[in-house]
Design a protein that fits this description.
heterodimer, A: 7-stranded mixed beta sheet, 24 strands, B: 24% helix, globular
């Protein structure tokens, strides 16, 4: 339980919500403990230890939403906030030209906890700072490395969700991540290379298994090679994209357009809408038959696999794109009804106790194919192999995108040859995914995720994991960045 | 809906209460140096889409951060729980961290006490505004759009925060800051128009004017043509100018400059932009979101960063400033870009002067492509038009740009006086609309 007497406080709040005549209400208590250790240029620049706790009450009154939240946890504050949520919902209802309706969800009573071997927040701090300093020292031994950075992050969320429908869910969730970067300077320009673990719901054992020190010399030497590499010559290239890189490409060009609230216009003023409008579902050719994009919020260790979302809906697995055809959306209990679905996909999430849940991208991944990476490369005469994340930008309907990367190698006659710099590729989402003619097999599958996916007003950060094996795309437009 | 909530909002941490909390921490701290930051905020947002309210929220969040140092070993801890036990626990956590942290060669003790400026950071009308006022404004924008048979999506938000810093050096500062925001995207079938505002005073959001502006843009965007990518003369409206300038502001840090990993490396004291352009910090300006002090306890004062195109100032952290023997660190919370010489009265005058140009309302999803020369990419959004013979002749499909502000702002053809500008990706600024003769659009999207 995140707080003592949380059940009593939940009962107090939801009684008032029910008494108001509201058709639905829920309360979330959340206590988040996070630790971020950041190193810069061989020194530990900051250690931040944050405890963020509070509660939020959500009310649906006559088809209008209200939400109020507070970091003050007391028996006096609970009724104030609950009453305020009701009053705000009444105001929304007074302007509601269309009443919000929630699709049905079974009542759940459950407890969900992340399985960890080494609880990340109990690992001695000096062990972590020593690792970061050693890895920064290691990369800066390379003479042309002028800057270094390294960080470790961990968070534990203890949450209680209770609804007027009788659902009661307790959560104790962990997540960890680590990374380091080397920056090289040469001939008036500079370039960076980064090693990063995924963000996953697991323990510190993932950081230990990542073995930063084993990777540090290679990362440093690749930063130097990258800054000295020839700039890419613009033109059409075949691309072979590694799983970490693909995570971002999928996130931006498939994940966001598959959020149903965007497709229905809820984000028109900020994050944007979607070219995947509801009438395209089941008929629109999003990609080639090699492209199978599956949302899976049930895969252990992934960020969106929390058992239940913030609507109290159980996590699920479903198809977004099947053999190239667009077939499914990420939904919540509100928007699912608008396209005739009878159950939410369980993708409604808030980034804190003080935020109202909104539709978020699920753990959308590219299903493995049958080739090996060598086989994907072997059939490329002139191409580029891209690893990691770099520049990224996409229009507000998710058509026109542009991506860089962290490291680039020229492919000539089926072999990776030397590094390139300043590689940027751009295209139109469905044209790009229709140019995919091969996906590597399950042996190459890896997972990467994001905890800073921006959406909503006020802005919120979404968490999700994207898994993929390497994939090949034909004749993609490349320019010099 | 009644306005009763405005009266029953919980009282935020006052200056006296913050001093009491800070004294409690300072008295109990065993560290050599202790700094306490408080940010206690209450605010809400009414969000609408498809001309109806889809989200209506109100949140009170107080955070207290305690940072301590034993010699050069540092640690910090934050809590949202202001009860005595939790504050003690936060201090204990910070001390535990500091005791096992490695020495930081860049550690500096907290700043000495000083007299801070007292700009008008809080407006009572914003403090008093609650859910009903936000809903009233949202309804006003939605109603105007309904009259035109257009869809409205946007937000109205208001907040008040009590912000304070205290340190074992005797440093103490506290002020109340209010902020109100409005932004609106009007949808006319496939076309969109946009407008936005941010101000200390909720009375200054100009809901009606901005709604009409967004409506006009959406209506003008209905008939759209596709132009080929390439180099164009552009008329950038203030929001578009702010989008590009923000990236210059964010990359002015002195440490990167010293290490040679800044796009400005070697340019201090040199002409980097058009000789008529000046960038200043104006914390007292009533239309900017100036503050009296920064999170580090530095005073926010007037300063000149780029003077007639010459780079005069960098963003120093305290350690780098000490290395350079800089006593007063310039801050940039309230940026104003101005241009000297005859200015056009309004963007409309710039349009009249152009034989052929692309008029850009706003940019979206701006990101760095090449940090060495600050090449950026991004999309035009919510109103992109072709100007021919001094008039808007058609809307055009949105372009992706691939361009460095350090290149394009070297030559400015014409400009207006600086006006308020804010976007979803930038802070509030004062900037002119500008005509730039050579701007690279690298591709076109489908709408």
């Amino acid at each position: 339980m995140p707080f003592t007497r949380a059940d009593e406080m939940a009962d107090l709040a939801l009684r008032r919500v029910t008494a108001s005549g509201a058709e639905y209400g829920d309360i979330r208590f959340l206590k988040s403990t996070s630790q971020t250790i950041s190193g810069e240029d061989r020194r530990i620049a900051s250690i931040r230890d944050v405890e963020d706790s509070g509660f939020g009450v959500r009310v649906l009154y006559h088809g209008g939403w209200g939400f109020a939240a507070s970091s003050v946890l007391s028996l006096e504050e609970i009724p104030r906030v609950a009453d305020l949520a009701v009053e705000i919902a009444r105001g929304s209802a007074s302007l509601a030209s269309e009443k919000t309706r929630l699709v049905e969800e079974p009542v759940h009573r459950d407890r969900v906890a992340t399985q960890t071997r080494i609880e990340p927040l109990t690992v001695p701090l000096d062990r972590k700072t020593t690792l970061l300093r050693e890895v920064m020292d290691c990369v800066q031994r390379e003479p042309e490395i002028v800057r270094s950075s390294a960080s470790l992050w961990a968070r534990r969320d203890r949450k209680l969700f209770v609804s007027t429908e009788g659902t009661r869910l307790e959560f104790d969730l962990c997540a960890v991540q680590g990374e380091f970067t080397a920056t090289a300077r040469y001939d008036g320009r500079f370039a960076s290379r980064t090693f990063s673990t995924p963000h996953l719901r697991t323990g510190y054992e993932m950081i230990e298994a990542a073995d930063f020190m084993a990777h540090a010399p290679l990362i440093a030497s690749q930063a130097v090679e990258k800054v000295k590499a020839p700039a890419v010559r613009p033109g059409l290239y075949d691309l072979v994209l590694d799983p970490e890189h693909l995570a971002l490409t999928m996130h931006e060009s498939c994940g966001h357009p598959s959020e149903l609230d965007r497709a229905l216009g809820y984000e028109a003023n900020y994050a944007g809408t979607s070219f995947l409008t509801p009438e395209k579902r089941g008929t629109f050719r999003y990609g080639s038959p090699h492209v199978n994009l599956v949302a899976d919020n049930t895969e252990p260790e992934t960020l969106a696999a929390t058992g239940y979302d913030d609507d109290g809906v159980a996590c699920q697995r479903w198809d977004i794109v099947r053999e190239g055809l667009f077939v499914g959306y990420c939904t919540n209990r509100e928007v699912a009804a608008k396209i005739g679905e009878t159950r939410s996909r369980g993708s409604n999430r808030a980034d804190s106790w003080g935020s109202v849940p909104i539709v978020r991208i699920a753990n959308i991944g590219l299903e493995p194919g049958s080739a090996s990476v060598d086989e994907l490369l072997a059939d490329v005469k002139r191409g580029i192999y891209i690893e990691g994340h770099g520049s990224y930008s996409i229009d507000q309907r998710r058509y026109n995108f542009q991506f860089g990367g962290d490291a680039f190698w020229l492919i000539e006659n089926g072999k990776r040859t030397h590094m390139l710099r300043d590689v940027i590729y751009h295209g139109i989402t469905p044209e790009f995914w229709n140019s995919c003619d091969g996906v590597a097999d399950r042996r190459h599958r890896r997972r990467f995720g994001f905890i800073t996916c921006g959406k909503g007003q006020p802005g919120q950060s979404g968490w999700m994991t994207h898994a993929a094996s390497h994939a090949r795309f034909r004749r993609v437009a490349v320019i010099k960045g | 809906m009644s306005t009763a909530n405005a009266k029953t909002w919980p009282k935020l941490t006052s200056a006296d209460e913050f001093r009491f909390l800070a004294d409690l921490v300072l008295k109990r701290s065993e560290a050599d140096h202790t700094v306490i930051n408080c940010h206690d905020q209450h605010g809400g947002t009414t969000r609408f889409a498809n001309s109806r309210v889809v989200q209506n929220v109100d949140t009170r969040r107080g955070t207290l951060t305690v940072a301590v140092a034993f010699d050069r070993r540092r640690g910090s801890a934050t809590t949202t729980d202001f009860t005595a036990g939790a504050v003690q626990d936060t201090l204990d956590r910070a001390e535990r961290i500091a005791r096992v942290s490695p020495e930081d060669p860049e550690f500096l003790p907290p700043p000495e006490p000083q007299v801070f400026p007292t700009p008008l950071t809080s407006r009572p009308e914003t403090t008093a505004a609650g859910p009903s006022r936000r809903l009233e404004y949202a309804n006003e924008a939605i109603g105007q759009c309904r009259i035109e048979n257009l869809q409205a999506a946007g937000i109205v938000s208001s907040s008040v925060a009590s912000v304070g810093i205290a340190a074992s050096s005797g440093l103490f500062a506290q002020e109340e800051r209010t902020e109100a925001r409005f932004s609106l995207t009007v949808q006319a079938e496939d076309a969109t128009g946009w407008s936005a505002a941010a101000h200390r005073s909720i009375d200054h959001l100009k809901i009606q004017d901005r709604t009409l502006s967004a409506i006009n843009k959406a209506k003008r965007s209905r008939d759209v043509q596709e132009l080929a990518p390439g180099r164009y003369r552009v008329i950038l409206e203030p929001a578009a100018v702010a989008g590009l300038w923000s990236w210059m502001l964010w990359t002015l840090d002195a440490k990167s400059y010293d290490k040679g990993t800044s796009p400005f490396a070697g340019q201090l004291g040199r002409q980097i932009l058009d000789e008529r352009l000046t960038l200043q910090n104006l914390p007292d300006h009533p239309d900017l979101l100036g503050t009296g002090f920064t999170h580090e306890g530095l005073p926010s004062e007037d300063s000149v960063w780029i003077e007639k195109g010459v780079l005069r100032q960098l963003a120093y952290d305290r350690f780098t400033a000490q290395q350079h023997k800089i006593k007063r660190i310039a801050t940039l919370e309230a940026p104003c870009v101005s241009a000297s010489g005859p200015a056009a009265f309004k963007t409309q005058e710039l349009i009249k002067r152009c034989e052929r140009a692309i008029l850009v309302t706003n940019f979206w999803y701006i990101r760095t492509v090449n940090p060495t020369d600050l090449t950026l990419t991004g999309m035009t959004r919510d109103g992109t038009f072709l100007v021919e013979d001094g008039q808007i002749t058609t809307a055009v499909r949105n372009f992706r740009f691939h361009e460095s502000p350090l290149r394009v702002f070297k030559q400015v053809e014409a400009f207006t006086e600086p006006v308020e500008a804010v976007t979803s990706e930038t802070g509030k600024m004062l900037v002119p609309a500008m005509v730039l003769p050579d701007f690279h659009f690298s591709s076109v999207t489908r709408f």
